[in-house]
Design a protein that fits this description.
GO biological process, one term: axoneme assembly
Protein name: CFA46 protein
Helix content: 40-55%
Radius of gyration: 15 Å
Number of strands: 3
Structural class: mainly alpha
Number of domains: 1
InterPro entries: CFAP46
């Protein structure tokens, strides 16, 4: 919410989405947000791919999405329990597709042009810092995604 407020006047007037932890978006909301965006930000718990249906994602065409930022891979007791319970019904291959590299490949095949994603589990605080750095460099300074990622790596 702080990021939205900070960049509201210039950049976020056209941003749409679901914020907060009051509810989980429906599959239809995920699809609508993904197909109508030029950039997509996921800032949430566990793996991004655990929140959407794989068969629906692979059938999607998302060529308008120039950038997808996945600040996921945060784990809490509640999220781990949810993922464990949902994982019981998933095959080993399906769980493997939810890993960061495989997720980036799938998103690329659906038309997403650039993906910035975590490679390993992290904390909410670390993701908040990453989001602040990315927002400042992409929105305020106007750096390219490559330049912003390079700054994150430092």
């Amino acid at each position: 919410k702080e990021i939205l407020e900070k960049y509201h006047d210039v950049f976020t007037l056209q941003w749409e989405g679901v914020t907060g932890n009051m509810r989980v978006p429906s599959q239809a909301e995920w699809e609508q947000l993904l197909t109508n965006c030029s950039a997509f930000l996921f800032y949430g718990m566990e793996r991004f791919m655990s929140h959407i249906l794989l068969n629906r994602l692979v059938a999607m065409n998302i060529p308008k999405c120039h950038l997808m930022i996945l600040l996921d891979l945060v784990r809490s007791k509640q999220s781990y329990q949810r993922i464990t319970n949902s994982g019981i019904h998933k095959s080993y291959l399906r769980i493997g597709i939810e890993r960061p590299t495989e997720t980036a490949m799938l998103l690329s095949l659906t038309g997403v042009r650039s993906v910035i994603a975590n490679q390993w589990y992290t904390t909410l605080q670390e993701n908040a810092e990453r989001l602040e750095i990315l927002s400042e460099n992409l929105l305020s300074i106007g750096r390219t995604t490559g330049q912003a990622v390079h700054i994150l790596q430092k």
